[in-house]
Write a structure and sequence with these properties.
Strands 1-2 form a two-stranded antiparallel ribbon. The longest helix is centred in the C-terminal third of the chain and has 52 residues, at 267-318. It has 387 residues and is an all-alpha fold. 72% of the residues lie in helices and 1% in strands. It is elongated.
């Protein structure tokens, strides 16, 4: 599918789009996009997910109906099974509207969670900048920057069972239990941050909380709070409050993300939609048969079922945004941003301040030169002068 998507490792996996670039947008709106999409139609995630059992069941019912009407009753009009297509058309319209509503409701959750990650990104960038500006102690600065890089990692693993490592299979225990393999990936990502061996106790605390089933983002926020509190007395209270406000932003976004994670759309609505879709798609062959005959019924039933059920299926996938969003890419982007702030930050001095410092240094050198020629205020004589 190209560099704009993560590779799918199973038929049931959804499509996961990566961050778009200007070139990706150009391809996205290309006039040849429909041809490209038709060439890849059987690689579509919705077709592959719906192929079995949904579409296969509809096709099986259509073939069975054709066999019954054409072979068993030999085309006898009074014995053929069918439904009035006119009466069934109203049900199809209602089902289409219901599927569209389901997709819109799920997309609202998807968009909200993407905004959450954007707010997290902005807050961490601001905290990294303020850390370099106002924290005086180099150890405190280094510790805070590491915590800022660790926060999106622990948030990712908190919101997604696999931490974005979608190739980990839950029921494959050849390399250890599922939990142990996820924990190993979690530790590996933290070690990439704590490569210098400093503040290693913070990493141990994050690992322990994760392994015991605790709330790791809260633990990282606690560590940030400890770092901020340790700076009190060496940093102006106004600046301490500014950094703390950014941490409060992170805490608020984290709480909103947990709200989406813990609360689905009403499950009664999901079950009702699923049941209606099932009855409707399996009744399609009966509505099509009287007008399309045995061959047209099979194709039209499968196509119509796919067209409507795929909308509902996309909505179901988007309902859990943290399973679809490329959160590891977001974490890597935040990691790079914090690294850039820490690496490139320099204290800016006004040209006038630099000139004053240079003048003061020059005067200091002159005074040192004058003092070299005196001893206790008495000028020193040269060797030939003392003879």
């Amino acid at each position: 599918f190209g560099p704009t998507r993560l590779l799918r490792n199973a038929r049931r996996c959804p499509s996961r789009d990566l961050n778009f670039t200007p070139l990706d947008w150009a391809n996205h709106r290309s006039p040849y996009r429909r041809i490209r999409h038709m060439i890849n139609i059987f690689k579509s995630s919705t077709i592959q997910r719906l192929f079995f059992p949904e579409l296969s069941m509809t096709a099986g019912i259509a073939l069975g109906l054709a066999y019954y009407n054409e072979i068993v009753v030999s085309g006898a009009a009074d014995a053929m099974l069918s439904i009035s297509p006119t009466a069934f058309g109203g049900a199809t319209t209602a089902i289409g509207i219901l599927a569209g509503f389901r997709l819109n409701a799920s997309y609202g959750r998807f968009e909200e969670c993407r905004i959450f990650w954007g707010d997290t990104n902005n807050a961490i960038r601001d905290m990294a900048r303020e850390t370099m500006m106002w924290l005086k102690d180099p150890g405190q600065r280094a510790r805070m920057l590491k915590l800022l890089k660790a926060y999106p990692v622990v948030l990712n693993f908190h919101l997604n069972a696999k931490g974005g490592h979608h190739n980990i299979k839950r029921f494959d225990n050849t390399n250890g239990s599922f939990e142990d393999r996820v924990h190993a990936e979690y530790l590996a990502e933290l070690r990439d941050i704590y490569t210098d061996g400093e503040d290693i106790n913070d990493m141990y605390r994050m690992a322990k909380v994760k392994y015991t089933g605790g709330n790791t983002p809260i633990e990282v926020l606690t560590l940030m709070g400890e770092t901020i509190a340790a700076s009190v007395g060496t940093v102006d209270s106004i600046y301490v409050r500014e950094i703390d406000e950014q941490m409060q932003r992170l805490c608020a976004v984290f709480g909103a993300s947990e709200r989406v994670l813990r609360t689905s759309l009403p499950t009664s609505f999901t079950r009702h939609t699923s049941r209606l879709m099932h009855f409707w798609s399996n009744a399609l062959p009966f509505a099509y048969y009287s007008t399309l005959g045995p061959f047209g019924t099979v194709f039209a039933s499968v196509f119509t079922s796919w067209a409507i059920q795929s909308i509902e299926d996309i909505g179901v996938q988007l309902e859990e945004p943290f399973f679809v969003l490329p959160m590891r890419q977001y974490s890597d982007g935040i990691f790079d941003a914090v690294n850039q702030v820490g690496r490139n930050y320099e204290v800016y001095e006004l040209p006038s301040a630099k000139a004053d410092a240079a003048e003061a240094a020059e005067l200091s050198q002159l005074k040192v030169g004058e003092n070299i020629g005196t001893a206790n205020g008495v000028p020193l004589k040269r060797a030939h002068e003392s003879n």
